[in-house]
Specification:
The structure holds 2 protein chains of 2 kinds. Chain A is α/β, with parallel strands linked by helices. Helix content of chain A is 40%, strand content 14%. Chain A is globular. Chain A starts with a helix and ends with a strand. By secondary structure, chain B is α+β, with helices and mostly antiparallel strands. Helices cover 42% and strands 12% of the residues of chain B. Chain B is built from 7 helices and 4 strands; from the N terminus they run ααααβααβββα. A 4-stranded mixed beta sheet of chain B has the order 2-1-3-4, with helices on one face. Classes of the chains: A alpha/beta, B alpha+beta. FE2/S2 (inorganic) cluster binds next to helix 5 of chain B.
């Protein structure tokens, strides 16, 4: 009853806030927005509107997903739709205040698009623009629109309606609906969520646990961070529903320490939920008790693996154990434990806010629903997107992502992080679903997509990933501990031009063996980046054997030279060189002493664009 | 035992599973874990000192010597790598005259590499004292640090 009042009030407050009677200014203030200068933008809006006596509400929101256009703001005024502005500088901010806030004249030139009812002249509807046209936003629905610090905003957008519905049903029925939805784990392996829950439900025990995996170990991915920073309650609601279904009374969120803002927003959200008896004893009079604790990770990639994560929560070194027994049967402190990814759980709350069939209409036969992806690397529109599964990589990269900057040539897209692989241009038409990606030698992973262009060296990328995994290997099993180290040595030799053809075969053989014999998922997948790059980019490996790095990346192979025609003797490179390898007097042509050069590229960076006098070569002459 | 340590311990019960959180709290307060503090933790949790070290050294996060006033975390994630993080690292090391994992002699800066800051859309980036600097170029790095 009490909650119903709160929810009704929330709805009214929300309608009022978005009515446009008082102008509403949204400032994108997730980590991406903040690092691009959101604080400064907010300050300008706050001060200027005060100075000019413009009454308005200024509100920090999460990330709408268009990180490439940060700092980003949106303005809702009068009956107009919400107008989204990108790449805000102090000058642009002032112009928008003059024109849009003071004179009701939206600045179409800086606008990315409009959201909501109505249209404006010269500004497209955001949902019709290429970025959003191909997206289906279910999990990300609230992101960038609601304040992550206000539980009332979540209420006003159907928040906790799914929980109320779920608590009126039997746990078995909840699991059945998750089965109907076709939801598979979003943390990497894609295990059917209902099946795991069922196993845990069926295991008799005095205590059970639910763990949310927010370790987001894939370096180059940020789906979970962004979701928690933008809409933390969607995770909490999903956790309560899941805990009720499996019969757990204690839940943990294992979140990486490198995400201070996400941690702060989680803490606040948990407190808000506790105050309204959405967490705690006898939740909403249902007789079900559930509490959530947050555990901060301590910087170990392997702790994303289920058994290692459990060891870490128990206060031990994060070393994995052989499975079975699976955690769903014997997990945290020996009790049945379900571990689900952030996105999996947030999706559960959406499924119950609407229904399973609605969710299952998206996606393919075996991979249902939508999935978020983090677009990064050499792509124009970086950011967070959500698409129905089965969409092609080409649509994601070229339509949503806008293609490669500076019209450079696309080379590969890396999916699945250190456990995944690099997909070449020829395969851009394959559908993005769990099974097709495995066929291509990679995995869906948690949703990181890093795009690479002609300037990326694929051997260097393979070396990069193996360097990462050999450092992150926990050391418990030999194939992973020593095998990855050996892979690294061979790759390192190749990038330095010290290897021969036999070494490539060795990489393949060793990689297969590591996959087949490692204890946990880390070693079982770590050779994937090497194996896929050999499979699709063998020519680059061959070039390195011949002491050439075609992408001009590998320091051991490339060389720098000053073009005497272009050098004006500005002396900047001379001062910048850390090894004094450059000689030449001011105003005279300079020269690089090759024996002293360490190929750091600092001279190349320092040479002013107007001269552009330093050339890079793919080999030593 | 130092007074401050008592105030750290007062937030915990000393159970085994709190070990990592206790170490995190100490590092947050003092910047690193000293040998004496590890001994205190061992006493408090009844976990042998060798085991406390075993846990602490397993995790990247824990340090055993003081850090600089300004803590620079360089992202070594995939997106940053592809967008030129190695060049940024070269430039930072060149400017500060230290290597990753070291602190400048004046105690002003320390440099550490982390797996990913989660700001990959604006790569390459680094974090200085919990604040992310994004879309960095080697040129911008030059102006980031106080000249000493
Ligand atoms: C080395 C390694 C790292 C992993 N890292 C993560 C991670 O950061 N986040 C995550 O959700 N799952 C990660 N996983 C997968 C989890 O072990 C687990 O399968 C997942 O959290 C289950 O949740 P889901 O069924 O909802 O996908 C990792 C697995 C391995 C082997
Ligand atoms: S790869 Fe650098 S922030 Fe993620």
């Amino acid at each position: 009853m009490d909650l119903e009042n709160v929810m009704n009030k929330a709805k009214k407050g929300w309608a009022e806030l978005y009515s446009g009677k008082t102008p509403l200014i949204l400032i994108g203030a997730a980590t991406c927005g903040k690092s691009a200068g959101a604080a400064k933008v907010k300050e300008i809006f706050t001060e200027e509107t005060k100075k000019r006596n413009i009454e308005c509400n200024i509100m920090e929101v999460g990330c709408i997903g268009m990180c490439y256009a940060e700092p980003l703001i949106c303005i809702k005024k009068s009956d107009d739709p919400l107008v989204c502005y990108g790449n805000i500088t102090p000058e642009k901010a002032l112009e928008i205040i003059n024109s849009h806030l003071e004179n009701d004249n939206p600045v179409s030139e800086y606008a990315l698009g409009t959201i909501g009812k109505g249209t404006l002249k010269d500004i497209p509807e955001l949902h019709e623009t290429p970025v959003l046209k191909n997206q289906v936003r279910i999990v990300l629905n609230n992101c960038g629109i609601i304040s992550p610090s206000e539980i009332s905003h979540y209420f006003a957008n159907n928040g906790y309606k799914g929980l109320i519905k779920a608590l009126q049903q039997k746990p078995a029925d909840i699991i059945e609906q998750v089965r109907e939805s076709g939801l598979r784990g979003r943390g990497g392996a894609g295990f059917p969520t209902w099946k795991k829950w069922q196993i845990c439900r069926d295991t008799k025990a005095d205590k059970k646990f639910l763990i949310c995996n927010a370790d987001e170990g894939d370096p180059g991915a940020f789906m979970n961070r962004s979701l928690i920073e933008s809409d933390p309650h969607s995770l909490i609601e999903g956790m309560i529903i899941s805990a009720y279904a499996i019969g757990a009374n204690t839940g943990y969120i294992y979140c990486r320490a490198e995400y201070p803002l996400a941690l702060a927003r989680l803490d606040l959200a948990i407190k808000q939920a506790e105050n309204l008896n959405l967490l705690g004893d006898n939740i909403l009079g249902s007789g079900f008790d559930f509490t959530i604790k947050v555990k901060e990770g301590a910087g170990a990639f392997v702790c994303g693996e289920e058994t290692a994560l459990i060891a870490s929560i128990e206060g031990e070194r994060g070393m994995p154990c052989p499975r079975p027994p699976f955690p769903a049967v014997k997990g945290l402190w020996g009790k049945p434990t379900i571990i689900n990814n952030v996105e999996t759980l947030a999706t559960v709350s959406r499924i119950f806010q609407k229904d399973a069939k609605w969710f299952a209409q998206y996606g393919t036969d075996k991979s249902k629903g939508t999935k978020t992806f983090a677009l990064a690397g050499e792509i124009k529109r970086t950011g967070l997107i959500e698409v129905p599964l089965g969409i092609t990589l080409k649509t994601i990269i070229y339509d949503i992502g806008g293609g490669i900057p500076e019209d450079k040539e696309f080379k590969a897209v890396q999916t699945g992080g250190p456990s995944g692989g690099c997909v070449p241009k020829e395969l851009l038409d394959i559908p993005v679903d769990y099974d097709s990606l495995v066929e291509a030698g990679t995995i869906m992973g948690s949703g990181g997509l890093v795009v690479m262009n002609e300037n990326t060296c694929m051997v260097d990328v393979a070396r990069y990933f193996i360097d990462f995994t050999q450092k992150e290997s926990c050391g418990k099993c030999v194939p992973c501990r020593l095998g990855n180290k050996q892979l690294f040595r061979i790759l390192d030799d190749i990038t330095k031009g010290k290897a021969d053809k036999k070494d490539i075969d060795m990489l393949k053989k060793l990689g297969q063996n590591i996959k087949a014999t490692s204890l946990c998922g880390l070693g079982q997948t770590s050779p994937n980046p090497v194996l896929t790059t050999i499979r699709y980019f063998k020519n680059e490996y061959d070039a390195h054997i011949e002491k050439k790095c075609p992408a001009k990346v590998c320091k051991g192979l490339i060389s720098f030279e000053i073009d005497p025609e272009k050098c004006t003797g500005c002396h900047i490179c001379f001062k910048a060189c850390p090894t004094d390898a450059i000689i030449g007097k001011p105003k005279e042509t300079h020269l690089i002493i090759q024996e002293k050069c360490i190929q750091c590229g600092i001279c190349y960076e320092s040479c002013p664009d107007k001269f552009n006098a330093i050339n890079v070569f793919s080999s030593r002459n | 035992m130092e007074k401050n340590m008592e105030s750290v311990f007062s937030k915990f019960t000393g159970q085994r599973h709190e070990l990592i959180q206790i170490l995190q709290k100490i590092q947050e307060e003092f910047g690193y874990l000293s040998d004496e503090q590890i001994a205190n933790v061992s006493e408090f949790t009844k976990v042998p000192k060798s085991k406390v070290y075993g846990v602490a050294t397993f995790y990247e996060q824990f340090r055993f010597s003081p850090i600089g006033k300004n803590h620079i975390m360089l992202c070594r994630g995939t997106a940053c790598h592809v967008k030129g993080a190695p060049r940024i690292l070269d430039e930072i090391e060149n400017q500060l005259k230290i290597k990753t994992g070291e602190t400048t002699p004046d105690g002003e800066y320390s440099l550490e590499a982390v797996a990913c800051i989660g700001c990959c859309a604006l790569a390459p980036c680094i974090m200085i004292n919990n604040e992310v600097k994004a879309n960095l170029t080697p040129d911008e790095v030059k102006n980031l640090f106080k000249k000493n």
